[in-house]
Design brief:
Layout lengths: L29 H21 L10 H25 L8 H42 L4 H19 L3 H15 L10 H29 L17 H20 L7 H17 L8 H50 L12 H4 L3
Helix pairs in contact: 1-2, 1-6, 1-7, 2-6, 2-9, 3-4, 3-5, 3-6, 3-9, 4-8, 5-6, 8-9
Length: about 350
C-alpha cells in the first residue's frame, strides 16, 4: 500500500484574489454589473443541482455525467458572456490570451486521459462477456475458462493507467495558476477575468473528482477555497464539501473502487467466482444462475453508463477545442497572432485518443 500523501492545502489562503482585479475605488457600470451577477447566479444554480441528493449518489456514473453536462454548459455560457460584453478579441490583453491557450490545452489533455480510462474500463467489460458466455455451458471445462476470464477481469481492473498520472500533473499545474491577472483600465476585462476564474475553479473541482474516481485514490483530491464575494461561492463550497467528505469516507473504510457501478460489477464477479473456481465438478446451479444474472445486470448497466459518459466527455472536449479554434481564427483575422502561439500548432493533429 502506498504511503498516504499530504492533501492539497486550501487554495487562496493568502487572501482575496479580487484585490488585484477589483481594487478599492473601482466600479462597474450597471450593465456590466448585471452581466456579471447574472453569470455568477447561473453558476450558483447549476452547482446547486449538482449536489447529490444522497450519499449513495456520489460518484455514480450518472452523477459524473451530470457534472460533465455542467462543464459543457458553463463553458458555453462564458462564450455568450464574451459576446454580451462586446469585447472584441483585438482588445484582449496578451496575458488573458496566454492564460486561455494554456488552460485550454491542459483541459484537452485531461479529457484525453479520462477518455483513455473509460476505454480501458470498457476493455475490461470484454472479460465479463466471456465469463457470461462460458457460464451458458454446464461443462466443467467451460467453468475453467469462466474462472480464467474472471481472473483476467480482476487483474485488468486492478492495473493502473499511466495517463492518469500525467493527468494529476496537469491538474496540479492548473491549480497553481488558479488566480486572476492584474487588470488595468478595463472594466470589461475585470468582468471577463472574474467570470473565467469561476469557470476554471469549477472545472478544476470536477476534474479532481473524476481523476480521484478513476484512479481509486483520494490522496490528491483537491479542496479549493473561493472568495466569498463570488455569488456562487456558497453553492460551490456546499457541493465540494459534501462530495469530498463522502469520497474520503469511502476510502477510510478500505474500499478499493470508488465508482459505484464498478463496485457493483466487482461484487458480482466475486459472487460468481466460488462456483467456477478449480473447475469444480459439482456446482449448485441455481445459486450460479442467480449470481450470473446479477453479474449480467450490473455489467450491462456499467457498460451503458460508460458509453454515455464517454459521449459527454467527448462533447466537452469538442466545446473546448472549438472555442480555442474560434479564438485563434479571430486573432489571425485581426492580425494579432503569430504562427507560434504556445500550443496552437495543429492542436487537432496533436490530440490522439
Amino acid at each position: 500500500m502506498s504511503r498516504p500523501q499530504e492533501p492539497h492545502k486550501p487554495f487562496l489562503s493568502f487572501g482575496n484574489p479580487f484585490r488585484t482585479i477589483l481594487p478599492k475605488g473601482s466600479c462597474l457600470s450597471p450593465k456590466l454589473l448585471a452581466l456579471l451577477n447574472d453569470f455568477e447566479e447561473s453558476l450558483a444554480e447549476k452547482l446547486q443541482k449538482l449536489k447529490p441528493a444522497d450519499k449513495e449518489d456520489v460518484l455514480k456514473l450518472s452523477w459524473m455525467r451530470m457534472a460533465t453536462e455542467l462543464l459543457c454548459a458553463i463553458h458555453l455560457n462564458i462564450k455568450s458572456l464574451i459576446t454580451a460584453l462586446e469585447l472584441p478579441v483585438c482588445d484582449w490583453e496578451d496575458k488573458w490570451i496566454d492564460v486561455y491557450f494554456s488552460d485550454s490545452v491542459k483541459l484537452l489533455d485531461i479529457c484525453i486521459a479520462f477518455s483513455s480510462e473509460i476505454n480501458r474500463l470498457k476493455q475490461g467489460h470484454l472479460y465479463l462477456q466471456c465469463v457470461l458466455h462460458h457460464l451458458n455451458s454446464a461443462s466443467s471445462n467451460q467453468f475453467v475458462r469462466a474462472c480464467s476470464s474472471l481472473d483476467g477481469w480482476s487483474k485488468h481492473i486492478g492495473s493502473k493507467n499511466p495517463r492518469l498520472d500525467s493527468c494529476f500533473s496537469v491538474m496540479d499545474s492548473l491549480f497553481r495558476t488558479l488566480d486572476l491577472p492584474k487588470i488595468k483600465n478595463s472594466s470589461k476585462g475585470m468582468v471577463l477575468m472574474r467570470a473565467m476564474y469561476g469557470v476554471k475553479a469549477i472545472t478544476l473541482f470536477v476534474c479532481s473528482i473524476f481523476a480521484t474516481a478513476f484512479s481509486g485514490s483520494s490522496n490528491k483530491l483537491m479542496d479549493l477555497q473561493v472568495p466569498e464575494t463570488c455569488l456562487w461561492a456558497t453553492a460551490f463550497t456546499e457541493v465540494q464539501t459534501f462530495v469530498n467528505t463522502e469520497i474520503r469516507s469511502i476510502h477510510s473504510n478500505g474500499k478499493v473502487t470508488v465508482l459505484k457501478e464498478l463496485e457493483a460489477v466487482d461484487m458480482g464477479a466475486k459472487k460468481v467466482h466460488p462456483f467456477v473456481q478449480d473447475g469444480a465438478e459439482y456446482v449448485e446451479y441455481e445459486g450460479l444462475k442467480i449470481a450470473a444474472l446479477d453479474l449480467e445486470k450490473s455489467a450491462k448497466e456499467f457498460s451503458q453508463e460508460l458509453d454515455l459518459l464517454a459521449k459527454d466527455i467527448d462533447g466537452f472536449f469538442q466545446i473546448v477545442l472549438t472555442g480555442r479554434d474560434a479564438l485563434l481564427y479571430n486573432l489571425r483575422i485581426d492580425g494579432n497572432i503569430s504562427d507560434q502561439v504556445p500550443g496552437s500548432n495543429n492542436v487537432k493533429d496533436q490530440v490522439v485518443r
